[in-house]
Every structure is written in C-alpha cells, then in structure tokens.
C-alpha cells in the first residue's frame, strides 16, 4: 500500500512504525544491488578491465563499476570477464571478428595512468557489428572521485548507444530506522544511485517521511515529527542548513517541488480534512487547491508545471486525480482497479507511474496518459513510494523482502528489476534526485 496514503488513512504513524521499526542502525551504510530479474532483450556488451600503468592496484575497479551500471539499467547484458576473448586497452588493439564470435554488440576498453596525485583515464566505445569506434574521451580524476568518474563514463556510453541521457551520476535519498518504541531512531540518507557513498544528513528520535529533491538537486524537503507534530522542512543536502516551512495543527505532509523550484505542493489538514495546497517559497503564501470532504494527498507536478496529480478517495477508494496548478475542477485519471495511489510522472509527461492493488498485493504500475492502458511492473506484494529516475528509464520504490524493508527498482518496461537491501536492516521512502549538472 502507498505509504503516504496509508499513514493518513490509518492515523499517520501506526502502520509506518510497524513497518519501519525493525532492527537497523543509523550509521553510514551502503546499499548493495541484488539483481532479481534481467531483461531477455538486454544488449550484449563487453567491458574490458582498464589497463593500469601505475604501481600496485587502484582503489576502485572503474571498468567493473561501468559494467555494473550498464547491467543495472536493464538495457545491457555485460559479458562475464571469463568470457572476454582478449584484453585490449585501445581501439587500435581490437579485432572485431573475435568479439562477433562471442555475440558482443558493443565493446568498452580503456587505460588508466597516474599523473601526480590524480589519474588520467582514457576510455573508448566500439560498435562491433558496425566495425567502428563510436566514442572516446580522456578525463582526469582524483583518487576519491574514481567511482564518480566511472558513473560519468557509464552515462556517456548509455547515451551514445540508446540516445537517452544516463542517470548513473544521480543520487537517491531514503529513510532508515533503528529500534522500536521509545528506542526508535530515524535517519535520512543520501547515496549514489547504485547505493554507494551513503551519507546521513539527518538523525531524529521521531519519524521522517516523504523526502523530495529540489529540481536543482541541492535541497531535500521532508516531513519530520521532531516537534511532536508533523512539520515540513527543507534542508540543504550538502551544508545541513534547513528551515521549517509548515507546522500547522494536524497533518503537514507529502511535499512536492514544482519543476521550476519556486513552489511546494503539500497536503495539509489545518482546515479540517487533508487538502492539497501550494506554497510560494519566496513569500511563504499558501494557496488551497482542493476543497472536498475526502482525503486529498500525495501531490505531484506535471513536467510542465501546469497541473498537479494527487490521490483522493472522493470516489470511495483511493484514485488519482488531476487539476490545474492554479486550481479548478479535478478530473479523475485512473479507472482500472479499485486502488491507485502515489502518482509520479515520467519526465516527458506521457506515462504515470503509481501504486496499484490487485488480489496478490500492492504493485508498481504505469498508465499511458494517451490510451489509459495500465501495465503492472512488479510482482512483489507490498510496494510503495515510487520515484522515477530523471531519464525515465527506472523507478525506485520501497518494498518488503521477507520481514525486511528494502528498496526495489524496476525498469520502465518492467523487464528488469533489482533490490537494494541494507545490511543493517530496514530502509524505506526512496526519492531519486534530478540530474545534478
């Protein structure tokens, strides 16, 4: 069930604590990707270990990170290193016919050499069937930025082949919890998109909910209960500086940034039932958009900023509705099934991702906005809080693995999926950052 909807409908905290308060720790923790389903249409690609001309070894295996990134996208199926027919380090050393025999469609080679306290990285991408070099670049990286450089290389390769901008250099935010009852402890983390370089940016004795990245990737809005009641905060992800935007009596929840970063949509119950409001962040002026006896929550903006989608039970069960960002009549947009919530748009606005319910549980699904066709993307039983990658190719969400809360991800076509469990226990409430440059 969608977490934002469930917490409102069931008293805001009861179900959340029941799901989150397992045995975890609040210290820094990397999430490890476990592939659960590979695409049978993934493109074969060979990523050869990069030749290193320095002494000893590198602290990061750049080529392996690139290979992992491409595999996690669901678009590529990297050859195992044992299947590599040779170990070229430049395009001049590549014999295309050799790679055709192992059905490699593309090939990545490279070399790394130390330059003072930095590294010079050269990489190249070859089209094996076309028999040509597609891409080549030289970059400089510090020791501490080798993973970031690998993600950058993955982004360039992904875009060169697919025509879609890569999202491997983006980040995710998520919530972890430790203990239970009076010993409960909560933490907000940010990490690389592959779960590494996790950093805690907030720790609290009280629940943290609904993290949402600003469009520039600099700030995160979230809900905290540290003052005894729900309140919406905005925090700088790098400096930790933060401000409290709302702390009205009742529910202050589900913050969502407008595409231009000037406004924040939210659900407030200060006037009775939870309704959708929009705050102008410069003036702090609130505009109420909905006025209904139903529960209205989980707003999200269309990519053009002209409309909002939100969850409402005004039809008797949670469904998704759309209305102008300036207010007016709301129109129902989901009709398949009796439960659809937590809508999130693809970057082009053509697809609506959401949580839907059927006889087997709660799943991440997508609806084509032109045809209204709904496709269920996951087969797990308890999915919630979907968040879409900025290139629209993957959706990250919270789910259950046994008794543990984990993060899951599924490709937008549903063909590939993976999970990001924490070695320390429960993680939930994921949010995928925008492109960071």
TrEMBL record:
Residues annotated as signal peptide: 1-28
Ranges of residues in domain TolB N-terminal: 31-134
| The species this protein was found in | Salinicola socius
Gene3D superfamilies registered for this protein in UniProt: TolB, C-terminal domain (2.120.10.30), TolB, N-terminal domain (3.40.50.10070)
Query: Keywords on this record?
Result: Cell cycle, Cell division, Periplasm, Signal
Q: Which GO terms describe its biological process?
A: cell division; protein import
- Superkingdom of source: Bacteria
Alphabetical list of InterPro entries matching this protein: 6-blade_b-propeller_TolB-like (IPR011042), Tol-Pal_TolB (IPR014167), TolB_N (IPR007195), WD40 (IPR011659)
The cross-references to SUPFAM superfamilies, in alphabetical order and at most eight, read:
TolB, N-terminal domain, Tricorn protease N-terminal domain
Q: Which GO terms describe its cellular component?
A: periplasmic space
Protein name per UniProt:
Tol-Pal system protein TolB
Instruction: From the UniProt record, report the name of the gene that encodes this protein.
Output: tolB
| Purpose of the protein | Part of the Tol-Pal system, which plays a role in outer membrane invagination during cell division and is important for maintaining outer membrane integrity.
Q: How does it assemble?
A: The Tol-Pal system is composed of five core proteins: the inner membrane proteins TolA, TolQ and TolR, the periplasmic protein TolB and the outer membrane protein Pal. They form a network linking the inner and outer membranes and the peptidoglycan layer.
Give the family, as the similarity comment puts it: Belongs to the TolB family.
**Subcellular location, in the record's words?**
Periplasm
């Amino acid at each position: 069930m969608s977490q934002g909807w469930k917490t409102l409908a069931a008293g805001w905290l009861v179900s959340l604590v029941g799901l989150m308060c397992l045995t975890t720790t609040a210290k820094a923790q990397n999430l490890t990707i476990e592939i659960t389903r590979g695409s049978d249409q993934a493109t074969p690609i060979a990523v050869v270990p990069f030749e290193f001309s320095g002494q000893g070894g590198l602290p990061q295996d750049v080529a392996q990170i690139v290979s992992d990134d491409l595999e996690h996208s669901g678009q590529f199926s990297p050859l195992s290193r044992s299947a590599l027919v040779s170990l070229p380090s430049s395009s001049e050393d590549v014999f295309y016919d050799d790679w055709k025999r192992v059905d490699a469609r593309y090939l990545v080679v490279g070399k790394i050499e130390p330059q003072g306290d930095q590294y010079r990285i050269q990489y190249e991408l070859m089209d094996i069937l076309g028999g040509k070099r597609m891409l080549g670049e030289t970059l400089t990286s510090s020791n501490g930025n080798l993973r970031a450089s690998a993600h950058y290389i993955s982004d360039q390769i992904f875009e060169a082949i697919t025509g879609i901008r890569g999202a491997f250099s983006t980040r995710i935010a998520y919530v972890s919890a430790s203990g239970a009852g009076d010993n409960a402890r909560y933490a907000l983390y940010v990490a690389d998109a592959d779960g590494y370089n996790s950093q805690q940016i907030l720790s609290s004795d009280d629940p943290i909910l609904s993290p949402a990245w600003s469009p520039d990737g600099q700030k995160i809005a979230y809900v905290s209960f540290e003052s005894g009641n729900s309140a919406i905060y905005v925090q700088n992800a790098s400096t930790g500086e933060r401000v409290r935007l709302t702390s009205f009596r009742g529910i202050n929840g589900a913050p969502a940034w407008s595409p231009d970063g000037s406004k924040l949509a939210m659900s407030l119950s200060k006037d009775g039932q939870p309704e959708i409001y929009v705050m102008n962040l410069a003036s702090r002026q609130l505009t109420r958009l909905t006025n209904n006896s139903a529960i209205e929550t989980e707003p999200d903006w269309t990519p053009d900023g002209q409309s909002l989608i939100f969850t409402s039970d005004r039809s008797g069960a949670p469904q998704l509705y759309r209305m102008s960002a300036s207010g007016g009549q709301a129109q129902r947009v989901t009709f398949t099934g009796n439960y659809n919530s937590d809508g999130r748009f693809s970057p082009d606005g053509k697809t609506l991702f959401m949580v839907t319910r059927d006889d087997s549980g709660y799943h991440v699904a997508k609806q084509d906005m032109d045809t209204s066709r709904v496709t269920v993307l996951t087969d797990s039983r308890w999915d919630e809080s979907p968040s879409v990658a900025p290139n629209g190719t993957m959706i990250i969400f919270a789910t259950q693995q046994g008794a543990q809360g984990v993060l899951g991800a599924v490709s937008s076509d549903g063909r590939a999926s993976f999970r990001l469990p924490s070695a320390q226990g429960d993680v939930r409430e994921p949010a995928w950052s925008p492109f960071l440059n």
